[in-house]
Design goal:
Radius of gyration: 22 Å
Helix content: over 70%
Structural class: mainly alpha
Oligomer: single chain
Length: about 375
């Protein structure tokens, strides 16, 4: 008889693997619904802008986790493959969006408005629209101002993978990498408060990368802690984090329904605190999943909305402008029409434009 094979030690935990998690699409669904609420019914959801902050934290977490998994698996990170996958994920929907906007401007708008659209297209493709809004408030970006958050994320995609690869390649310890991320976070928070105290404009505080990167960095921090299993594994810590996550979710709900983006209290620490609560909720969802929280987040319609959230973010804004016009008090009929039209165009874009490239991206990821 062959000798018995030694069993794996029970105290060695399998490395963290992200995989597809429908609840994260549910989180995206919640995020985009908050943004739609802000832009369609701002009196009801004045704090819907926190939906963008959820996107930032989630992006930082996902990108960091996937990069660390590749490093653990291969001992390296292919930056070429990373940027190619990002292009397949984000490029098709954006190009389709810009082509249709440009065509509409050429056919139906006056010369001055057409020039505004074309300028916005160039700035969008350059991924600098957020800085234009922050530093050049009179510059005509028009309807393409909605792409400011895409610019922030793209700048993150450009810098963070390079930085993480450098830190890993230099064989810095995990502790030092975490310390560097935390130091960067503190610098952003202090910098934002200093700008506010110095009289910086709302646009400078709200749209600039250096004042909004803490959401992305908190996502990066969460990704490192989760991927490397650096959080305490005691039952007491788990219970404390779950209680903290519940309190965080309630606090975020309060902010969403009460605090406008123009409220100066945001830049006195509330924004930083709210972003931390988002990171706490996300981390608990990943590490200590609770059936009660997963039930709504895995609700199929919400998961589907999360899957199409990128296109929905792009298309709802021009649709809003087209349906609402100059109206500051749109009717219920206008709001319903804008919502239906936004979902209709986004659905077409997702299945006819985005999905073929997403399929190709998935094949390349498993190649």
């Amino acid at each position: 008889m062959p000798p018995p094979q030694p069993s794996a030690p029970k105290n060695i935990k399998a490395p963290f693997r992200l995989g597809y998690r429908p609840e994260l699409d549910g989180v995206r669904g919640v995020s985009i619904l908050l943004v739609l609420g802000l832009h369609f019914i701002p009196k009801v959801i004045p704090g819907g802008y926190f939906g963008v902050e959820v996107f930032f934290v989630l992006s930082g977490f996902l990108i960091t986790t996937l990069l660390l998994q590749e490093w653990e698996r291969k001992g390296s990170i292919s930056l070429k493959d990373f940027y190619f996958r990002r292009a397949l994920r984000l490029g098709p929907a954006l190009i389709f969006y810009l082509l249709l906007l440009g065509g509409y401007a050429f056919l139906f708008l006056k010369k001055e408005h057409t020039a505004e659209i074309y300028t916005g297209i160039l700035l969008t493709l350059s991924y600098v629209s957020n800085w234009i809004i922050a530093l050049k408030p009179d510059y005509p970006l028009g309807i393409l101002a909605i792409t400011w958050s895409l610019a922030v994320e793209e700048q993150f995609y450009l810098l963070w993978p390079l930085t993480l690869f450098f830190l890993l390649n230099k064989k810095l310890s995990r502790r030092w990498i975490v310390i560097i991320i935390v130091s960067g976070l503190l610098m952003i928070i202090v910098h934002r408060y200093w700008l506010w105290h110095s009289g910086a404009s709302f646009r400078r505080l709200y749209y600039s990368t250096d004042t909004r990167a803490d959401g992305l960095m908190l996502g990066c921090l969460s990704g490192c802690l989760v991927s490397w299993g650096l959080m305490p594994k005691t039952r007491f810590f788990e219970l404390g984090m779950k209680v903290l996550a519940l309190g965080s979710a309630l606090f975020l709900g309060y902010l969403v329904f009460t605090i406008k983006s123009s409220n100066p209290i945001l830049f006195k620490g509330v924004f930083a605190f709210a972003t931390m609560t988002i990171a706490i909720v996300l981390t608990v969802l990943i590490v200590w999943p609770a059936a009660l929280a997963f039930l709504p987040l895995k609700f199929p319609p919400l998961v589907w909305i999360g899957r199409i959230s990128y296109g929905l973010y792009l298309w709802h804004w021009p649709v809003r402008g087209f349906i609402f016009g100059a109206s500051q008090e749109p009717s219920t009929k206008q709001i319903i029409t804008a919502v239906i039209l936004s979902f209709a165009i986004t659905t077409f874009s997702f299945y006819c434009v985005e999905k073929p490239f997403l399929t190709l991206k998935k094949r390349l990821s498993h190649a």
